[in-house]
Amino acid sequence: MPQSLGALCIELDQAGYTVLVAADGASALARLDLVSPDAILLDALMPGLNGFDLCRRIKANPAWSHIPVIFMTGLSETSHIVQGFDAGGVDYVVKPLRAQEVLVRLATHVRNARAVRMARDAIDIGGHGVLMIDAQQRMAWRSPQAQQWLARFFGARGDAVCMAWLAGQAAGNTEGLRTLTLAGQTLTARRLGNAGLGEVMWLLGLRTADAPAPSRLSTASLTLRETEVLSWIAKGKTNRDVAEILGMSPRTVNKHLEHVFQKLGVETRAAAAALASRELG
User: Fold this and answer.
1) What is the pTM of this model?
2) Minimal CA–CA distance to 84: which of 112, 117, 58?
């Protein structure tokens, strides 16, 4: 409704936001081709494409999927609210709108989205891509760099083939490393371990096919303390020995080792010690 949009736009403008208005789903998609907003306030009932279907379209596009979508609609039944969240919305506000409530919710979601975006960009600047696989063996999240590499190596074959690649070689590859070479470039994927409830993180990298593979330790991003603990473990020291040498408790040593195992993609103390002995000498 134009009158509702006008009142809300005034409130948003006074709060410091720049507002772009779309009267229907088609014009919203056209605007997204031109700009990438910090957030989208979306009605469910619109001419043509409804809000739920529009949200699914937005979330299916990797270039837009990070944008938080907040539903603002008169549909207040539980089934509608569930439908909004299932479509990919991060919040659901029922009309009549209370401007201060909308502003507070919007500020929170914009702040959270910016923090996620900065973390995602920092990962890509480091020359790596990240994949998150959920408990149902589905690709739950990927960084933009990972998205580019997967599109280059798997093309239209999509997530299913990528998941098969990650699951492959399990019997003969105890280090959780996958490689795939195409047109003189090698895509690598290293399993970093569990990152949440049933979720697994994979770190992707790209190198020329004839370049030497980077060492496991150089790509593991161990902290200085973790490296010190690992070096002493590789020399055959017990946790108690390491604790005395480094001036920490055995419990702290064990916590450092848990992080080391996860970052190296190994499961046992012996595997970590063997790897360190081979690469540290």
Assistant:
1) 0.53
2) 58
